[in-house]
Amino acid sequence: MITTCLRSVAALISLVAIAACSSKAGDPARQYGPDPYLPEPHAYLMPPMRVPEAVDWKAGEMPTASAGLKVEALATGLEHPRTLYTLPNGDVLVVESNGPGTEPFRPKDFIAGKVKARAGAGAKGGNRITLLREAGDGRPELRTVFIDHLYSPYGIVLVGDTLYVANTDAILAFNYVPGETRITSPGVKLTNLPAGPIDHHWTKSMTASADGSKLYVGVGSNSNITENGMAVEEGRAAIYEVDRLTGAKRIFASGTRNPTGVAFEPQTHQLFAVVNERDEIGPDLVPDYLTSIRPGGFYGWPYSYWGNHVDVRVHPERPDLVAQAIKPDYGLSSHVAPLSLLFSDGQQLSPAFANGAFISEHGSWDRSPLNGYQVIFVPFVNGLPVGKPIPVVTGFLGKDNETVHGRPVGLALDRSGSLLVADDVGNTVWRVSAMQSGT
Amino acid sequence: MLAQEPYGKVRSSGSLQGSRARPLLHRDFIGAGGVLLIAAFGTDYMYYTTALWQWANFSAWLITAGLIVTLVAVFLLLLDFAAGRAGRLNTGSFILVFAAALLSLVNAFVHSRDAWSSVVPQGILLSAVSTILLVIAGTRGWNLAMSRTTGDRP
To answer: What predicted TM-score, i.e. pTM, was given to this entire model?
Structure first.
């Protein structure tokens, strides 16, 4: 009883201490690579929040690319473009989407919702896929609504003559005839995916195995850190393997809080994912990451992060699972919000980007100074990420970091090897190409 | 006849005529806000024993609602003074309710955290202390000022 009282007093004193301290974010470079710096977690009365105000790109304004590359707008005026996909004939598909808006509302959401909306996160998605056909000069010669009336779509992949689209609640299969610019037939449902109730992390990233027999789907958690209860986390925060012909599915790996991008490394055919880690325990916790995905692997969420660092917000604790938690391969630093993972394909863009992965960083909301808001390249050697990330496309933020013109989401390489970047605040698809290449 | 009696002392002027106090507007709202904040301790305790998220959700809303109702009560208290209904400030009760409201405001922020840390340990501790203060204020009648009897009017 006395110890309980003493503990209570200590808890209240620590509360006053928390109210007094303000934690400043450190250098993100300390959190790149396999062994990121991990500070002590904090419990806040008001977690740090900083979001730039969304301001449209003015005519002629655009992001900046690294040396030797140029940027131009391929398409503008889209409705919250998220995922990009290049078809074999060179047509580019743009998935225009946003969350289904089925989340619960708590007193804190008065504030959090307003803050996130400031940076354009609340805009309505088109729930459709737009097709862009490029002309030689980089301008689209054709733009059509390819598939309409979808339900918060995100992942998209073509296998043979079947186009798979991952809505937030199901994978749909569409028959695709090469060259066609509009699909009107309704898709056939391949399998359901975990969605409502709530559907907090709604995006369903998707890729296919090299032989086309299996689809891999990233399913995000239904909360930041189980604050909506454990029942709604059943089957979430996981990467699924779906049999393409039967629709049978199983959890391939788990504990991945929000796996927003999945892709196969082209040399080793190893599955990789970018994962968005948890919020509200500090500006430098927890680093988002890029990792190879082991079959049956458990990556910590919700019980622990970066291996066996226990998150005390989760109750009851599960030391047995924490002991199994796999350390991710490569830290991207905290709250950058990686949303797309794209392996490079040879040297078409630049010799520097011959071997490795492009990652779009949508940008932070609970960290000051801001982090992310760029497209980076992570070099790979022998099928594993090595060294420091290289910024490829930057300049999405205003000079004072108080405004934001765009936030990068989907990535794709077009037929000429140029990098396409979907921008869901500027509602634009940017095309980044080599300056000297005659394309 | 003396409607105020069960809730607290009615200052009597001593004369038979005009001894009836005009009712205080703020009192019932202090009571209602206090009850909401006390209820949050109940739901915090349920979350502490079950770890079922809906109890923590109840707590967050009860504290928010309790604070809003208490804020309304403060405006009504000022109105009571302005209208000459209230006499002397009931210092003891005022300090109890003020302290409970202040702790509950901090507690609203603690309850804005996610999952277990929104309640254990600091949240439920703040709810418990607020509850003790409010129960004492409740036994004193919820009124933060003495009623002024009509005979008292200067």
So the answer is: 0.91
